[in-house]
Amino acid sequence: MARTSMTIPYSCSLDEAQEKISSILSKKKFKMTTIKTGENVWKKGTGLMTAMQFVKVDFGQNECVLSAWIQVGLGSVGGGEMDLTGVVGALPKKQLMKVLEEIKQAF
């Protein structure tokens, strides 16, 4: 699994942190889904026009870990996970990095 991870500390309650992240991702048209690995993630896109974007959020003691990646292909068929580095899929990777930075700035 090739994923880009970012750890963000927070000083608010867990519920407030979850609400901030959910609000930003919903505003950006991400939808909560369960992928075939059984993980609950936020997903944007179908892979038809551009690569699908994924964000997984894990909460720990006063910090959250965001894992993000893109996947090229249609639906669940196609390539594997790609982290947010490199040239392939540069536009969706850049868009997803902006979303991560927006979440980081919210804290």
Description:
This protein has helices spanning 14-27, 90-106, and strands at 4-9, 31-34, 40-44, 52-60, 63-74, 77-82. The protein is of the alpha+beta class and 107 residues long. Strands 1, 2, 3, 4, 5 and 6 form a 6-stranded antiparallel beta sheet that branches. It starts with a strand and ends with a helix.
Please give a quick description of this structure.
The protein is α+β, with helices and mostly antiparallel strands.
Number of strands: 6
- What's the mean pLDDT score? 91
Shape summary: globular
| SSE string | EHEEEEEH
Radius of gyration using CA atoms only = 13 Å
H/I helix tally = 2
Q: Bin the helical content.
A: 25-40%
Determine the N-to-C terminus distance.
27 Å
User: What is the makeup of the main sheet?
Assistant: 6 strands, antiparallel
Secondary-structure-derived class: alpha+beta
The percentage of residues in β strands lies in: 35-45%
The low-pLDDT segments are none
